[in-house]
Amino acid sequence: MPFPVDSKGRTALAIDTTSDYLSLALLRDGKPVASHYALCGTRMARTIFTRMDELLAGAKLTPRDLHFVAAARGPGSFTGTRIGLAVALTISQVTGIPLIGVDTLRLLAEQTDPNSVGRFVAVLNCARAEAYHAPFMRRLDGRLEALAEVALADAPTVLELAGGNPIVLRRFEPVTADLAGLEALPRVPLIHPFPDGLCLLRAALPLLEQLGETPPPRVEPLYLKSEAFRTWRPHAPGPGH
Predict the structure, then answer these.
(1) pTM to 2 decimals?
(2) pLDDT tens digits for 91-128?
């Protein structure tokens, strides 16, 4: 599938560890050249370095060849999100390249068909009877615009906020939220089956372009259920941790 964003010949690495799946993708000279999407679970910290090194070596690149690194910042798994952000932040600090953080709901929105114009809601189930949600607008030119910040609410509230608009829905295990009403809403057509590293690159590029010469803001994890995450401090995990 052609990359639909003007990437200006950039080379970049995407890292998403917000679920039980390790997702990596590599952009070289403006074109996607490699990706990895596999179930890791508790092996995330032991696996990420090996898979990342394999991806870069296969494209004959090193971290210092990258123009930026993109990382999913949640909401999602507490431990997984921390691992991915710590690795991405370490690469950014060592190489001096920008780190661009992307919300998980934005990644879901990036799965949708750019020809499907209008308002829709990205929804991600949460523990307990709650779901994360964020409204988006797909403009006539295909541009994706976030209409509000990611929020957390019970399923009936999310259903009311959706207001009959179509949704893109992702369900993590274990599924505890009662999403029956949401399941009945129309779905936005998808062009990408998973919110993986390629979606992350697609979402990060326009965010990088919007910054211009301005340094990107510090990337903090987004985990709306926990006060602990609001005082999170990065620590890169080593192999075996």
Answers:
(1) 0.86
(2) 999 999 999 999 999 999 999 999 999 999 999 887 66
Residues sharing a CB contact under 8 Å with residue 26, sequence separation 6 or more, in sequence order = 11, 12, 13, 14, 32, 33, 34, 35, 55, 56, 59, 61, 197
Where in the sequence of the chain do the CATH 3.30.420.200 domains occur? Answer: 112-183
CA pair distance 22, 16, nearest whole angstrom: 6
What three-state secondary structure class fits 181?
Answer: helix
Distinct helix (H) and strand (E) counts, the chain: 7, 10
End-to-end CA distance of the chain: 36
Bond before 2 cis per omega within 30 degrees: no
Residues of the chain with CATH 3.30.420.40: 12-104+194-230
CATH 3.30.420.40 fits 12-104+194-230, yes or no: yes
Q: If we measure between CA atoms, which residue out of 6, 25, 13 comes closest to residue 64?
A: 13
Q: Could you tell me which CATH class the domain 112-183 is placed in?
A: alpha beta
